[in-house]
């Protein structure tokens, strides 16, 4: 008996989705279930995991309050700085740049991704180290300037490393902007600032929220930049997880922190989606 067309479409769709779904289940869902189980266990005497059911690990989260505080303060500030720098760049690429050179300019934004973040961060370690900018400032009479191993150095590394991830979503939103709306606003006597806040910004808000949510979520789990540019003095949750899993071998406590981090990421995503829908109205807003 031949299958109905709708049944065939459903089977084809299921066949296409099945590999990706299986991949996500094996490499995302199952590891998270394991972490969740570990979070309610105890540390074995020799390190690792010992089966138990206790909330002691979650009750001990306060001992890593500094890591949570640094992450919750620096990650949003870093995302905001990325937004401040990225929006003018994206606006220039989408609205002001000549279509003839636009593809080249967009490619230049992506070029840093061709180099490892580790290599780029090590380059900033040299620039901000004693032989870099502080040495140049000392030559002109400005001495005792400390740049490396500070929150400022971490923020600089964050903006440099994550800027392309903020530029591209905003660029995609601005590229769809109907320039006739800007011309009409100018013809009606609106000032450039009024046009920006009344037309450009609301229409580009989906890209802004997408970029902000993407960068913030990635920064919540950042490890490399705080480790290298912060010198262990600017401790993020990612640094705490590495310490607990690889050095202290306290897997249950590390798992509890990881579960808490996932909960924070989900909360940030939900809040970002709510804000985006509230300000964007019925326009499409995709954050994931």
Automatic annotation (TrEMBL):
Residues 68-272 form the ABC transmembrane type-1 domain. It is a multi-pass membrane protein. It comes from the Bacteria. One of its GO terms (cellular component) is plasma membrane. It is found in: Cell membrane. Keywords: Cell membrane, Membrane, Transmembrane, Transmembrane helix, Transport. The chain crosses the membrane at residues 20-41, 73-94, 103-127, 153-174, 195-220, 251-273. It holds the Pfam family BPD_transp_1. PANTHER family: INNER MEMBRANE ABC TRANSPORTER PERMEASE PROTEIN YDCU-RELATED (PTHR42929:SF1), INNER MEMBRANE ABC TRANSPORTER PERMEASE PROTEIN YDCU-RELATED-RELATED (PTHR42929). Belongs to the binding-protein-dependent transport system permease family. CysTW subfamily. This is ABC transporter permease. The lineage of its organism: Bacteria, Pseudomonadati, Pseudomonadota, Alphaproteobacteria, Hyphomicrobiales.
């Amino acid at each position: 008996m031949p299958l109905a067309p709708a049944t065939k479409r459903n089977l084809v769709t299921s066949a296409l989705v099945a590999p990706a779904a299986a991949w996500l289940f094996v490499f995302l869902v199952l590891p998270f279930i394991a972490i969740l189980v570990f979070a309610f266990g105890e540390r074995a005497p020799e390190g690792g995991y010992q089966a138990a059911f206790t909330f002691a690990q979650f009750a001990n989260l306060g001992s890593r309050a500094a890591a949570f505080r640094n992450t919750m303060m620096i990650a949003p500030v870093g995302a905001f700085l990325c937004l401040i720098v990225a929006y003018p760049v994206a606006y220039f690429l989408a609205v002001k740049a000549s279509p003839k050179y636009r593809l080249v300019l967009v490619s230049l934004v992506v070029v840093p991704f061709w180099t490892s973040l580790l290599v780029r961060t090590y380059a900033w370690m040299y620039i901000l180290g004693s032989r870099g900018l502080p040495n140049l400032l000392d030559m002109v009479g400005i001495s005792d300037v400390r740049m490396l191993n500070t929150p400022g150095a971490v923020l600089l590394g964050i903006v440099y490393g994550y800027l392309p991830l903020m530029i591209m979503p905003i660029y995609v939103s601005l590229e769809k902007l109907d320039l006739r709306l800007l011309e009409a606003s100018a013809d009606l006597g609106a000032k450039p600032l009024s046009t920006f806040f009344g037309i450009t910004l609301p229409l580009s808000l989906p890209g802004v929220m997408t970029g902000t949510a993407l960068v913030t979520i990635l920064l919540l789990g950042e490890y490399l930049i705080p480790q290298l540019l912060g010198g262990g003095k600017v401790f993020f949750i990612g640094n705490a997880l590495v310490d607990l899993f690889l050095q202290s071998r306290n897997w249950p406590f590390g798992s509890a922190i990881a579960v808490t981090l996932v909960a924070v990421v989900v909360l940030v995503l939900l809040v970002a989606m709510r804000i985006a829908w509230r300000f964007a109205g019925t326009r499409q807003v995709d954050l994931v």
